[in-house]
Amino acid sequence: MKTVIWWIRRDIRLQDNPALQEAVSQSTNILPLYIFDPKLLAHKAEQRQSFLFEALRNLDAELKKYGSRLTLITGNPREVLKSLIVTVGAEAIFAEADYSPYARHRDQKIALELPLWLVHGLTVFPPGVVVKNSGCPYTIYTPFNRAWKGLPHPSLSQNHKHAARISPLPVTTPESEAIPVKKTNAAFSASGEEAHRRLAAFVASPIYQYEDLRNRLDVAGTSLLSPYLRFGLISSHDTVDAAQMAIEKAPDKDSRKNAEAWLNELIWREFYISILHHFPEVLDGSFRRDLRGIRWRNEPADFRAWRDGLTGYPVVDAGMRQLKETGWMHNRARMITASFLVKDLLVTWQEGEAWFMENLVDGDPASNNGGWQWTSGVGTDAVPYFRIFNPVLQGEKYDPTGDFVRKWLPELKNLPTEYIHKPWMMDEAGLKSYGIKLGEHYPRPVVDHSIVKQRTMAAYNTGEPRIVIDGCR
Hints:
The chain is an alpha/beta fold and 473 residues long. The protein has three domains: 119 residues, Rossmann fold (3-Layer(aba) Sandwich), CATH 3.40.50.620; 121 residues, Serine Threonine Protein Phosphatase 5, Tetratricopeptide repeat, CATH 1.25.40; 172 residues, DNA Cyclobutane Dipyrimidine Photolyase, subunit A, domain 3. The protein is built from 21 helices and five strands. Strands 3-2-1-4-5 form a five-stranded parallel β-sheet, sandwiched between helices. Helix 1 links the parallel strand 1 and strand 2.
């Protein structure tokens, strides 16, 4: 009986796992393997690594129920696999395809030497399927969305769900390394069971208010599934299936619209993965080449104030402190804080992107890069660069009672709602009555938002042509 290796990367689950299913179809001797790649572990990402390690521990526990176990080895993936395939006599390696530049380069090199079989499963449709009739990739979300929805959904159309069929390993496997133990994230329990619990709870009711509440910072209006999708504790098929079933079961037109809005967000994830696949250069620079010469200020003190949640703009600071403490930030807060760093402070978007990747438990190269370039106005399908979020108005609109700010900025919790998003507008005596002195208990604004637009417009005026024609673009 031949042995095959199931190389786990971003698919830490037994349910609905095409790579695992393909391995099982070839052999009952499956070696579940996770490789700690020093190049990836070198990145500062405490929250994300903590989630990953907990997820691996939970997967190992699940495998042991089947008489199997998880093997963990640290090293260069190519060298680890070359050695392991000889040690256990494996005839094939099955892994879920990944589309980041690093993963593609790594896998291409390994496939030249070893029997590596890549199986699609990261998204519903592989990059290259949802394209124009010419074969060129979509670079605007709306037509991508329309084309995506026009294709037959493979999971629904074939009505299949992959079930785990891991058997006990009769082969001698190498000694497995211990999974590092780090402080777990109280907000996100890293298990497939928790992922499915959250999905079921969300589509049972909150999905029907999603469009109405998803931008509210002060209410729980989102699914909170992003870390689970990031590491594959739940499959893209499962989430899309759930969204489409919720749409079909919607009790009325408004409910259906809300459920469709969540499906559209799942398609955004697929769109950004497609963009990164077709245009890997976006990890190094702006998609819009005419905006690669922006004259950034890049003032270190401004970046530190933003990073530490000390800009003097409460909604910005609340978002940044939420990120630092929990490893997660509401998507509306991500847009607000990103706009403030880039448009108000004129700090390059790459600085913000890197900080988010360092701190986000759901940090994903494609979505994080796509989101930052969108907000900065330099990416594909981006918000116009002259659109600058007003942090006061954004706070008042999406945190109308100030509860979000009060939770993350306790120094301001007693301020009346009228001033919670603009404490500098209250006179000194009024602030003193609430125990606040600006510059001491809470900072004064690092910039006057009312004057930034002219400065930002001048910085973005690179003098390059607005329309750039480049192959399929």
